[in-house]
Amino acid sequence: MPGDVSTGDGAPGHGVPGDMLPGGMLPGDVSPGDATPGDVVTGGGVPGGVLPGDVVTGQAALGGKRPRVALLGEPGRAGGLVNAIAARLADGGADVLVVAPDDALPSDLDAGVECCVVDATAKAAAALALDAALPPASPLVTICHATTATGTAALVSSPGRVTGFALPPPVGDRVIVECACAMQTTESGAAAAASFWTAVGLEPAWVGDGAGLVTPRIIACLANEALFALSESVASADDIDLAMRLGTRYPRGPLEWAAMLGFDQVLAIMDALAAEHGEDRYRAAPLLRRLVAANADEVG
């Protein structure tokens, strides 16, 4: 149900780091499906990329009609996440229009997907643009890697249809999507979001609203602690990743995971958690801030 945390044993609220998620997957344990800028991706899973204005066509029709979806994201490094999410939705059967913030939006949309993680100004602009363009019954789903669904819902004129989601990379073969109701979400808004995700082949796993939801929050906290350990010369980056892979059975180490997610996104998550909870355990490692300032792709 909306608000429940679902783990692999099917029991709400009993998940711990390392528990299996629905579908037998560890957090982030999927095969790559990201896109390369410049190509159009079809629902058959052909690798490629999307640019603002490209239409990405899915393979499965729902009741004779593919869901038509507008996806707004932020420029720069975070654009890779936008492309990956667009490709995943297309593979699930949606016609996806990747739209630049200042582009006109069509009026026949079945859903709007807001994908800004780092840039709060771009996130607000994207949410407002989607809310203005979407038909009244269409859901607006907002990425909650570094914010809350409630915070985004507070920005728009139709907050009842806003729900949050988390879909961290690698995105390609994910079978679940973490979802969260905002405090303003109505029952019909939650139902519309659940129908949308199901229509594109993703099983909604409803969790509580909060910055990072579950998987991005855990990945960011693990990566942040690993960066503290690295800066204190506890072990090398490779040895930290190896120890975590072997010791926890995670599919990748925390520093490898952080590089896939993007250090800027990891920092955004940690800063959001620190602001929300005011606890020192969420203080970003100084090395993390330096990596973001250097626009680094990997540690070392």
Helical proportion, percent range? 25-40%
CATH C-level of the largest domain: Alpha Beta
Structural class of the helices, strands and pairings? alpha/beta
Q: What is the alpha-carbon Rg in Å?
A: 18 Å
Largest sheet: 8 strands, mixed
Q: Outline, from the CA principal axes?
A: elongated
CATH architecture of the largest domain: 3-Layer(aba) Sandwich
The CATH superfamily title of the largest domain: NAD(P)-binding Rossmann-like Domain
Under CATH, the topology of the largest domain is which?
Rossmann fold
Strand order of the largest sheet: 1-3-2-4-5-6-7-8
Number of domains: 2
Low-confidence stretches: 1-63
Specify the oligomeric state: single chain
Helical region count? 9
H/E series, N to C?
EEHEEHEHEEHEHHHHH
Q: Total strand count, please?
A: 8
Q: Indicate the mean pLDDT.
A: 81
Strand content: 5-15%
What separation lies between the terminal Cα atoms? 43 Å
